Amino acid sequence: MIDESSYDRIRMAQWLAGRARSDGLRRRDVLRALGVAGALAVVPAMSAVVPAVPAAAAGPIVKPLPPELFDVFGGNAEMRWESMRDQGFHTPVDRFFVRDHTATALVDPNTWRLRLFGAGLRGAPSRENAVEFSLARLRRLPSVSVSAFVECAGNGRSFFATQQNTPVPGTQWRLGAVGVARWRGVRLATVLRLAGLRASAVDVLPEGLDAEFVSNGVNLGHVRRPLPIAKALRDVLLAYEMNGEPLPPDHGAPVRLVVPSWVGVANIKWVGDVEVADTPLFSPFNTQLYRLYGPRYPAEGAPVTTQNVKSAFELPWQGATLAAGRTHLLRGRSWSGNGRIRDVRVSTDGGATWRRAHPRTAQRGGAAWLPWELPWRPEPGTYELIAAATDETGATQPTEVPFNTGGYLYGAQVRHAVTVA
Ligand SMILES: Nc1nc2c(c(=O)[nH]1)N[C@H]1C(S)=C(S)[C@@H](COP(=O)(O)O)O[C@H]1N2
Ligand SMILES: [Mo]
User: Fold this and answer.
1) Percent of the chain with pLDDT over 70
2) Domains contained in the chain, number
3) Of all protein residues, whose CA lies closest to atom 18 belonging to ligand 1?
4) CA-to-CA separations, 100 to 61, 73, 91, 93, 385, in angstroms, rounded
5) How much is the pTM?
6) How far is the CA of 290 from the centre of ligand 2 (A)?
7) Of 28, 76, 112, 171, which sees the most CB atoms within 10 A?
8) Using one digit for the tens of pLDDT, what is the confidence trace for 72-120?
9) Which of 303, 326, 346 is the last residue of a domain?
């Protein structure tokens, strides 16, 4: 079952009937998180707006974060889009955004083991008798490569404040919490089958080896999020290479999950234990967090599964200036969790008129982006550029999106100010 909205309703019905298990959550917390009792009680108050933390000298991220490539928000770093202007299809590691719930974990690849267990496997019911895979063993298995984006569900969150006047707490990303890499690794399906997958398996729960995540004084445990077995078997990778090099520490070394088209948090970094359950699972990362709660959403919230349609210009966010009286190539990229981009329209006059952008390269699969460009010869003045993409399902970027308390999935058209002088 790939449609998580319907799957989620089934998972919740089973849970309420006592047939699903909540991992690390008390029953009453799940009920509250899903709005079944007391509606939005666990949703953080709007007054708790967390200001962006200034860049720390030695932060939780290991790689260098030069200011021409990144804007840093505490333990998270956003790619500056102008740094993609002269790049090829993929995002180089030196500018790929980093989102750590706590800090980058340093894992010894020689002693690291992937450990699979659970009632959905034959002969490995509990953590104590897990089936183990070393990195060397994974590397000997047949590998596949895929170009796919990893995008934070909160990418674009700051625009809830600046474009819709409804600020949301959390990292105030602009549009740089996305990157496309060439990932190489083993299909999760291959490993699950070798581990003795049973037909009764329904959910797979990969867990990170990084520190436990404490949010508002509550320890939510290790970063982990259940995946329905259908998605796990379809196209999920246990990736050990990024752009042809061993996976770097900040991106999950030695092995991370790559879950094409799904929200960033599904792509568990530093994966260690993987539970394979024959009952549906919840974790805080698909109940309290990464669900859509708000006046336009149902009381039990809507799951955040695939990313929506977005577009970004490869221009500085602040102080973009172009010379008057000559032709410029406006460049950008568009992507969607629903599949390929069919069409990108660009407006240089705040949405009054639109022109079609030209693809720069092929898209390399529906889980990556489409780079595009458009010539523009402006007169001196100030302008608002807008790019709006449509994907193969017909989904397009609206001028506004409904508010949600987590500030997830800001897929509306973003107005980008440019000065021509
Ligand atoms: N173990 C673990 N996996 C994780 C996270 C984390 O904090 N710990 N963050 C998630 C989130 S919210 C995102 S958006 C992506 C970011 O991947 P990146 O840092 O490689 O860009 O990793 C996901 N996987
Ligand atoms: Mo994220």
Assistant:
1) 86
2) 2
3) 98
4) 8, 11, 18, 16, 31
5) 0.89
6) 9
7) 76
8) 998 899 999 999 999 999 999 999 999 999 999 999 999 999 999 999 9
9) 303
| Ligand minimally distant from the alpha carbon of residue 407 | 2
| Chain segment 229-276, per-residue pLDDT in tens | 999 999 999 999 999 999 999 999 999 999 999 999 999 999 999 999
CATH number at residue 342: 2.60.40.650
Quick one: 163 and 207 in the same domain? yes
For residues 296 and 367, membership in a common domain is answered with no
Q: What is the pLDDT of residues 264-300, one digit of tens each?
A: 999 999 999 999 999 999 888 887 888 999 999 999 8
Per-residue confidence (pLDDT) for residue 98, from 0 to 100: 98
pLDDT at 342 over 90: yes
CB 310 within 8 A of CB 336: yes
- How does DSSP classify residue 262? B
Q: For residue 152, give the ligand 1 atom closest to its CA.
A: 14
Distances (CA, A) of 103 to 51, 112, 264, 269: 19, 18, 16, 11
The CA 241 to ligand 1 mean position distance, Å, reads: 16
Percent of the chain with pLDDT over 90: 81
**Ligand 1 mean position, distance from CA 104 (Å):** 9
Ligand 1 near 268 CB (within 6 A): yes
* Range of the structural domain that residue 136 is part of: 4-303
Distance (Å, rounded) from C-alpha 271 to C-alpha 227?
14
Distance 387 CA to ligand 1 centre (A): 27
In short, whether 270's Cβ falls inside 6 Å of ligand 1 is yes
Distances (CA, A) of 340 to 177, 231, 370, 371, 394: 20, 18, 8, 12, 10
Residues 148 and 214 in one domain: yes
Closest C-alpha to ligand 1, atom 21: 98
Q: Is 241 in the pocket of ligand 1 (CB under 6 A)?
A: no
CATH of the domain at 195: 3.90.420.10
Residue 205 has pLDDT above 50, yes or no: yes
Same domain? For 52 and 177 the reply is yes
As residues whose CB is below 5 A from the ion ligand 2, the structure lists 99, 152, 264-265
Same domain as 315, residue 262: no
Do residue 296 and residue 329 come from a single domain? no
Q: Among 284, 303, 322, which residue terminates a domain?
A: 303
Q: Domain check: are 359 and 276 in the same one?
A: no
How large is the C-alpha radius of gyration of the chain?
21
CA dist., res. 264 & res. 34, Å (int): 21
